[in-house]
Amino acid sequence: MKKQNRHLALATALTIALASVASVAQQPLDRTKIPTPGPNPVLRVPTWTKTQLPNGALLIVSEKHNLPLVSFNITFVGGSNPFEAAGKRGVAAMTASMLTEGTTTRTGDQLSDALQLLGTNVLAGIGGEEGSVGFVSTTKNFDATLAILADMMLNSTFPAEALERLRARTLVNLTQAKDQPAVVGGQVFSKVLYGDAHPYGQRTTEASVKAITRDDVVAFQKAYFQPGRAIITVVGDVTTLKAKASVQKGLAAWTKAGDKPAFNYPKLPELQRARIYLVDKPGAAQSIVNIGLPGPPRNTPDYFALQVLNTILGGQFQSRLNANIREQKGYSYGVSSNFGYGKGPGAFRAGGAIVSAKTDAALIEFMKELKGIVGEKPVTDEELKTAKDSLIQGLPQRFGSVAGISSAITSLVVQGLPDDYYQTYARNVSAVTKEDLARVAKRYIDLDHLAIVIVGNRAEIEAGLKATGIAPITLLDIEGNAAGGASPTSSN
Amino acid sequence: MIKRRRILPVALLLLTIALAPALAQNGSADSIKIPFETYKLPNGLTVILSVDRTVPTLAVNVWYHVGSKNETPGRTGFAHLFEHVMFTGSGNVPYGLHDKLTEGVGGSNNGTTNNDRTNYFETIPSNYLETALWLESDRMGFLLDKLDLAKLNAQRDIVKNERRQSYDNQPYGRVSEILAAAMYPKGHPYSWPVIGSMVDLTAASEEDVKAFFRLYYAPNNATLAVVGDFDPAEAKKLIEKYFGALPQGKPVQRPSVPLGKLEAGKRLVYEDRVQVPRLYIQWPTVGFKRDDDYPLSVMSSILSGSRTARLTKALVYDSQIASQVFAFQNPSEDVGVFQVTVVPRPEHSLTELEAAVDQVIQKFIAEGPTDEELQKAKSGLELSFLRGLESNLGKANQLISGSVFHGNAAQFRTDYQKTLAVTAADVKRVAAAYLGRPRIVLSVVPKGKKDQASKAAESEAISMLHENRRGGRS
User: CA A26 to CA A48: how far, in whole Å?
Assistant: First the structure.
């Protein structure tokens, strides 16, 4: 091998000479030597201004003039969780969808045509804890698009026939979702962890969609899209002055109202002893595995330690879980872990899609890795260094696009993080120690109380799962309710 | 996300669509610029450099002009399996180091395979340029030094899991392979799916890997792009240092591939583990090297996408017999298809949907698009293009694609101009020429519900072998 390299290096020199590239006599290339990188590039965090508008909204502007693009986004603190009733899950999403259905001066078709001619699209979406209405446009179409956005957000008429059409579409989507094992796995996992009484355990169902009335939508629109909880973020090829003027003109009709909601989540159900919850999917080629329990909110002081921990455990390709279960064992196309954070107790989750025949073997490996990170196989110096390098040096990638910068800045406000968060990020990540990791692993990956939710072909996988002795098995249906009529298989 | 090394059969489709729904009215196209330079090393490696110092990161991207269409029958899925093997280490790069020097330093790496080409890329902090060139050159030159059967077997299992996850265990997941098998004659290079069959994946040998590497992974079949924050003079020196001495391979033969052509229409029905049936209609068209691709792509966004698009308006909004409808031109290097997919509302049959689709299309063929439809279809072009420029990797793929398939890295400009130049008459002509032809109508229905197919009595049942469905290790 060495010989071959030297031979090739000679050829290089020759080629260079022939091609008369300006280069002096080369040292033979030693390919066994890993090139040494230069010093890390200096972090350049975008700058921005913050202005409190008279209507209560916070305006953030960050200039970026390399391309004629503008990202505009109104982010609302609070989403379906604080603003939806349990029996009306789906109202928030329905209201967001209906913003495209027509205003007092434009039909839905006219809105669509106008936006198509501007070459852009206004997107509205409301999640559990925040919502947004926004677009990316060319610089020259910024004001015109903003005018349409304002019309949609403030003057929508919510036609009854549109509600029925969207309701029907949502019902078809819900039916199709039942056929997707990964979707079913995620839903049952949430329900097992949080229960029906906690918003994190609730979801939009056929019943809740059928219960939505036009009055619900109109009321939601009024209650929700209020400036007092809004962050308006403009990033791109506009000056701060111009952005302010555009926003003041474009959103002049948006008057003071509303404030940021409290996130008062109910108490979590009492933690259960570790248990396997098996959802039968006859004939499935793979088992969808989700293992975890409720975790800390985003504002936990343990955030940086948890990020480093998860990078080592399951946040990356060469993390312990994927290196073992995919790369070494070949049981899966990919497994991972993550912390959900949020304003409440977002879940810790580890999992992936596992070939049916290896469901039990993979579960044994998952448990081995979880036990490992909690103490049996402590984090090494090298793992710690690589995880930190990865997090710290990955930061600039967030600032590549106008939409990326917008979300990077806005999330600081939504999560109540300091303005110098990115400047101090490296310091905070660097400060994490192995002792911190040992502590947070023990605290947040509670091995005695893990819920193990598996959606797969019961006939093929149940006996093997039982034989692992990892935890007793409870059968659930695809809604996450106790499976009726099934023979009890619990053991231990 | 760590799901990676995945197949992207639609990567080029997305690129084309991004360019197609289009028409910068004030389309001076001044913003349609990517500064770049390109040259060839004596060993045949094409190099493209494009500087963008916005963020201190860069993308290194290598394309090999080989995809699933270069496979031989009995070895379907091999190009993609080979892509996986390229991540198992090479002569001087032990397994795992590639990841450590990319995602371990805040970057990422991945590879994708489609019918026509395979690509490998790294996004990295800008001080890791030399590292990435070292990594890519080592596997281009010395992959076989460290190859063994165990590595191949490990990747074989992972790829089989990829197939299970993305196709077999996915509702409607087998549609693309059913349609490809129906569209092209047996043995046609586009008649099998990029992922391949379980049986063929099992059959792939170490010898196959060696032969494939020698044939297709030489510098003369590769294009390297570096895009982002770097000094071009320095990059040229480094590229020469790491790639200059790799030996040139034999010229790659590119067989001429006939377009898809159906002598008569085909009606198929496939039973899947789904609750909601779906209707798929597919016509043979042309690939992205033919000019008809431009009006076909424009036609896609006139027929679906927005609420006033013809099929969407008629089926989803006016008659409300469909929940969703999609229409798109999907071009490859040598062939293309135009596909319509319809998701019904309950109580509406696939037969009814097919008739409704045909009615819209017949009317469209007869009258062609309005000027406003044409204008709307083109208006998003400038924005999509500009947004594509925000990503180093996106730019790299854009430049390489032009270079590999058109011999011109600046092809993006031609694509842009030709899309803007599409006329109503062009669209009307291609609508008649392609959508007026025999086509495949595929109904996917719940198990045991073949009667739910469109014109069930005339439809032929498809039974796909679920090879190795329960197979663990092979």
Answer: 48
Q: Which of A29, A117, A284 sits opposite B375 (nearest CB)?
A: A117
Distance between CA atoms of residues A189 and B175, nearest Å:
29
Q: First vs last Cα of chain B: how many Å apart?
A: 27
CA distances from A455 to A124, A289, A469, B51 (A): 32, 7, 18, 48
Domains of chain A, CATH where assigned: 1-34 (no CATH), 49-250 (3.30.830.10), 275-476 (3.30.830.10)
Closest to B107 in 3D by CA, of B393, B394, B387: B393
Which residues of A fall within a CB distance of 8 Å from B317? 165
Q: Which amino acid is at B288?
A: F
Tens-digit pLDDT profile for residues A445-487: 999 999 999 999 999 999 999 999 999 999 999 999 998 644 4
| Positions of chain B with pLDDT lower than 50, given as ranges | 1-27, 465-474
CB A228 within 8 A of CB A256: yes
Interface check B232 vs A, CB under 8 A: no
How far apart are alpha carbons B390 and B398 in whole angstroms? Answer: 12
Query: Is a pLDDT exceeding 50 seen at residue A269?
Result: yes
* Structure confidence at residue B308 (pLDDT): 97
Q: Measured between CB atoms, does A107 come within 8 Å of chain B?
A: no
Q: HEC profile for A200-263?
A: HHCCCCHHHHHHCCHHHHHHHHHHHCCHHHEEEEEEECCCHHHHHHHHHHHCCCCCCCCCCCCC
For residues B228 and B291, state if they share a domain.
no
Looking at the domain assignment, is residue B129 inside a domain? yes
CB contact under 8 A, A117 and B473: no
CA A394 – CA B24 distance, rounded (Å): 35
CATH code of residue B378 = 3.30.830.10
* Max Cα distance, chain B (Å): 68
- Beta-bridge partners for B254: none
CA B401 to chain centre: 11
Q: Give per-residue pLDDT as tens, B31-81.
A: 788 999 999 999 999 999 999 999 999 999 999 999 999 999 899 999 999
- Name the residue with tokens 């559990």: A128
Buried b (16+ CB within 10 A) or exposed e, A7-44: ebbebbbebbeeeeeebeebeebebeeebebeebbeee
Which helix (H) or strand (E) segment holds residue A472: the answer is: none
Nearest C-alpha neighbor of B225 from the set B396, B64, B57: B396
Quote the pLDDT of residue A15: 37
How would you label A427-453 residue by residue, b for 16+ Cβ within 10 Å and e otherwise?
eebeebeeebbbebbeebbbeeebbbb
* B290 CA: distance to closest CA in chain A (Å): 26
Distance CA A352, CA A317 (A): 13
CA-to-CA distance for B50 and B226, rounded, in angstroms?
A: 6
Test A176 with B105 for CB contact under 8 angstroms.
no
d(Cα A464, Cα A455) in Å, to the nearest integer? Answer: 14
A112, A138, A286: residue with CB nearest B383: A138
Identify whether residues B239 and B279 lie together within a single domain.
no
Kindly report, residue by residue over A33-60, the tens digit of the pLDDT: 999 999 999 999 999 999 999 999 999 9
- Whether the CB of B386 is below 8 Å from some CB of chain A: the reply is yes
Q: How far is B258 from chain A (nearest CA, A)?
A: 34
Q: Give the one of A35, A118, A393 whose C-beta lies nearest to B130's C-beta.
A: A35
DSSP secondary structure of A289-328:
EEEEEE---TT-TTHHHHHHHHHHHTSSTTSHHHIIIIII
Q: What is the pTM of this model?
A: 0.91
Can you give the length of chain B in residues? 474
* Helix axes A214-224 and A91-98, enclosed angle (nearest 10): 80
How many degrees, rounded to 5, is the angle at CA B75 between CA B71 and CA B81?
Answer: 85
Q: Give the minimum alpha-carbon distance from B107 to chain A in angstroms, rounded to a whole number.
A: 6
Supply the range of the domain harboring residue B422: 266-398+407-462
